[in-house]
Design a protein that fits this description.
The complex is a heterodimer of chains A (429) and B (414). With 429 residues, chain A is an alpha/beta fold. Chain A is 39% helix and 16% strand. Chain A folds into 2 domains: 250 residues, Glycogen Phosphorylase B (Rossmann fold); 155 residues, 3-Layer(aba) Sandwich (Rossmann fold), CATH 3.40.50.2000. Chain B is built from 18 helices and 10 strands. Classes of the chains: A alpha/beta (429), B alpha/beta (414).
Chain lengths: 429, 414
């Protein structure tokens, strides 16, 4: 069996959990004897692909004269409307963006007399995102036309148009995989174009995979998809051996850590508020907030206003190595996300031997029995849980040990096997 | 003559209120008055009052042939006195028939037998005093919390002057032995042991309302038929269960009261049967063999061991912190602290922390006021930490008062 897969990210070029998950899924499928052709917008050449075939959309020759969009269903026509909204850039970043990058490849660049062209892709989440998504879909149609495969699997909305195009051309079944929805990224002020792209992908798909029951419910209730069409297949983690850092802390106090983008979605204010509640009673704590994001200045101000700045540390974005060092110092890791389709940070913390507190509004809590769970807005409960983990060894020891076992049992091969069975059911095998 | 021994356990814990870490050191109240009151009122209406009335009727109907026994925990008695005194009155009416034996147990329905011998014995005495005061009889038969038993516990109980003790008779505890005889404790041969017939007891306590059970619906006649069919050499059947089985675990709609009402008559439909209390049983029947139980047994869960209360780190941590205070408690005469100390030892607090329910035992979550065992642990530990601080405060104050008293008497200053 051969799957044609579309995804916007692939390690090492990733900005979130999507690329990591795509990598795990591909490796897992290969282990289950499924061939994977993975199409990214732009391959860098140093990806760890193993036996998998990685295709760079930027390298696919495209016939120029063909009016590619014609003949496809109206589902995609809205894409031709030039979108002024760029969902992944803040206004500041947008202004900084080099306008020169916009000029080239407006219509693709002419290559030679054989009338083919290549689209250029940045492959990130920049200003030309919508245009690139559309070009990516055109390339997908070409790939689907010239390659043989059994099934199409598209990850998140950026590759949904590609998946739909490939299905139109080939007639093969389409599986869309939802790692996050617009509601997770934007809260209630959603970008309707992104929403519509997600919904079209879900409607056109033969089957939808959600990374958690939490996300499945969003798909059913906010995208109005029939429940039977959506299955939950949780993410796993890469369980290859890791070097455990010695737990050394420069502080005598207990270290409580938040790692993640400092955006509304991640619930940083709950963390600061819980910190203030604890520090009011017990100064034996230090709180570390690692990450970057639009709410970072606001969080610093909040900490100052609450007069807890001396016990709270903002580190900015941390690279892998620094993250590991921080985890080695931490006694508790907190993920108070407002809306988290899955949530990989708690699993990393657990692998580093740290007990975790996760919000009930997260997908990862569905696969963890040995984690403390609180509603993200319930800062009393959050403070109580942090305090208990720091003070009561019976609890922290048990959670660290037992959650470690839970995470060690997660395997991408197992999840990929579920996906393979899903493919087989769609192919009536 | 064959004997049937009915023993009903009556117990309610003092459930804790949500106690935040921010309240530690504040010395606020620990117990959820409202919840405890509400639950007790409800169970009194569903179970204790109607079941007591029914048993009273049955005793009057069958005269001397229908006897029953109760073990009522001290915490349950305290709650009756506080929230539903009419329940005490209805038990007193039963006591007045002379056909009811009240058993001894630890006042706090505690695990003290495993934590502190001194505390264990003190609680047994306090409970026996309470029973004597309320019902006019001093217990001679003992049943430990959740039927927990080891040879060592049997020995302590015997030294307290009890002549009979109840424990679990599950197959993997007894191996080839039958629970349908009286045994003597290997450690203290004068102590007689009555063993729960777990299959027949659980047919009523657990399976009665289970529609998937092959014997559902269970009529009293059918159940009595099983008793009549017992091997002729076996002499006694011990049916031990929670009293809340009647009307609470199984609601009245399941027909559990009709079952209880018809049960004695069905048993008496054949001659040669008689209902006895544990103490009466030991006067009629001699023990047939010595029984040794070096490992702890109980009547809980499939494992019938201590794993429901002390099986995980949370429970063991909480338990060791609790009993590390025992030494200090010996010099505490403060009524409120003593009462809290007693109520905090109730085994239910540990049962709520059981993590077996994460995978299987829905039974644990059925009884727990908490969402998760972790919540149960955190709340308990916050309370216990506060309690320990209050105890220290009290002891410092007490020492200061004693020193002052001493120096004023002797005119010596230190």
């Amino acid at each position: 069996m051969k799957v044609l897969m579309f995804g916007w990210e692939f390690p090492p070029y990733i900005s979130g959990g999507l690329g990591t998950a795509c990598h795990g899924i591909s490796k897992g499928l290969l282990a289950c004897d499924v061939d994977v052709v993975f199409v990214v917008p732009k391959a860098q050449g140093n990806e760890d692909t193993g036996k998998m075939k990685l295709v760079s959309a930027a390298a696919v020759p495209m016939p120029v004269r063909r009016d590619t969009a014609a003949g496809f269903s109206g589902a995609l026509t809205f894409f031709e409307v030039n979108c002024p909204l760029v969902p992944y850039l803040s206004p500041d970043q947008f202004a900084k963006h080099n306008p020169a990058a916009f000029q080239e490849s407006q219509h693709g660049e002419m290559e030679n007399e054989t009338q083919t062209t290549h689209y250029t892709f940045n492959g990130g989440y920049g200003k030309d995102l919508m245009k690139e998504v559309w070009q990516y879909a055109l390339v997908a149609a070409e790939i689907a036309d010239t390659n043989s495969f059994d099934i199409i699997h598209a990850h998140d909305w950026l590759s949904f148009p590609a998946g739909i195009m490939a299905k139109e051309v080939s007639g093969k079944p389409l599986v869309v995989h939802v790692h996050a929805t617009e509601f997770d990224r934007a809260g209630d002020s959603i970008n309707m174009q992104v929403y519509e792209t997600e919904r079209q992908g879900m409607l056109q798909a033969d089957q939808i995979i959600a990374v958690s029951e939490f996300t499945r419910q969003t798909i059913i209730h906010k995208y109005y998809i029939t429940p039977e069409k959506v299955v939950t297949i949780h993410n796993a983690v890469d369980n290859s051996p890791r070097t455990v850092m010695p737990a050394v802390s420069p502080f005598r106090e207990k270290v409580v850590t938040f790692i993640g983008r400092i955006t509304w979605q991640k619930g940083p204010a709950s963390f600061i508020e819980a910190a203030a509640r604890i520090l009011k009673i017990d100064k034996g704590f230090r709180f570390v907030m690692a990450g970057n994001g639009d709410l970072l200045p606001a969080m610093m101000k909040m900490a100052a206003r609450l007069r807890i700045s001396s016990n709270i540390h903002f580190t900015g974005f941390l690279k892998d190595q620094q993250r590991e060092q921080l985890l080695a110092k931490s006694h508790v890791v907190v993920m108070p996300s407002v809306s988290e389709p899955f949530g990989i940070v708690p699993l990393e913390a657990i692998r580093a031997g740290v007990p975790v507190i996760v919000s009930k509004q997260s997908g990862v809590q569905e696969i963890l029995q040995y984690a403390l769970k609180v509603d993200w807005w319930n800062t009393d409960a959050l403070a109580n849980a942090i305090y208990a983990l720091a003070q009561y060894k019976g609890l922290s020891g048990m959670l660290a040990r037992e959650s470690g076992k839970e995470v060690a049992a997660l395997r991408w091969e197992k999840q990929a096997q579920l996906m393979k069975e899903l493919y087989e059911s769609l192919l009536n095998l | 003559m064959k004997y049937i021994c009915l023993y009903f356990q009556v117990h309610q814990p003092f459930r804790l209120r949500p106690f935040s870490f921010a309240e530690i050191g504040g010395g606020g109240s620990y117990f959820n008055e409202e919840m405890n009151d509400t639950i007790l009122q409800q169970i009194a209406q569903q179970c204790y009052l109607p079941a007591n009335k029914l048993l009273l009727d049955l005793i009057e109907r069958y005269g001397g042939r229908f006897h029953v026994s109760f073990s009522i925990s001290g915490t349950a008695l305290d709650q009756f006195e506080r929230y539903a005194p009419e329940v005490i009155d209805s038990f007193r009416k039963l006591a007045d028939t002379g056909c009811v034996e009240f058993l001894g147990e630890t006042y706090g329905h505690s695990l003290a037998a495993l934590g502190s011998e001194i505390e264990f014995m003190a609680q047994i005495k306090a409970h026996a005093d309470k029973i004597a005061q309320l019902f006019g009889q001093r217990p001679v038969t003992f049943r430990n919390t959740e039927l927990i038993y080891t040879d060592a516990i049997g020995d302590m109980v015997h030294r307290m002057g009890f002549t009979t003790m109840l424990t679990e008779g599950a197959a993997h505890v007894l191996h080839w032995k039958s629970p349908n005889y009286i045994y003597r404790a290997a450690s203290s041969p004068e102590l007689k042991l009555l063993l729960k017939n777990y299959r027949l007891s659980d047919d009523i306590a657990f399976r009665f309302a289970d529609r998937n059970w092959e014997h559902w619906p269970l009529a009293a006649g059918k159940f009595a038929g099983w008793l009549h069919a017992m091997p002729s050499q076996e002499t006694i059947v011990n049916l031990f269960m929670d009293y809340e089985t009647f009307g609470e675990h199984h609601t009245k709609e399941t027909g559990i009261f009709q079952f209880l009402e018809a049960f004695p008559g069905e048993v008496f439909s054949k001659p040669g049967y008689r209902f006895v209390t544990p103490h009466e049983a030991t006067t009629f029947l001699p023990p047939i063999a010595a029984l040794s139980m070096p490992q702890p047994v109980s009547w809980a869960d499939e494992a019938r061991d201590l794993s429901a209360w002390l099986g995980n780190d949370l429970q063991q941590d909480a338990f060791s912190v609790l009993y590390s205070l025992e030494q200090k408690m010996q010099s505490c005469r403060n009524e409120q602290l003593r009462r809290s100390w007693l109520y905090l030892q109730t085994s239910d607090h540990f049962y709520y922390m059981c993590t077996k329910s994460l995978s299987d035992g829905a039974v644990h979550s059925y009884f727990s006021p908490y969402d998760t065992p972790f919540d149960a642990f955190m709340n308990y530990m916050n309370v216990l930490t506060d309690f320990s601080l209050q105890l220290d405060k009290y002891l410092v104050k007490k020492k200061k008062l004693m020193d002052e008293g001493y120096s004023s008497k002797t005119r010596l200053c230190f």
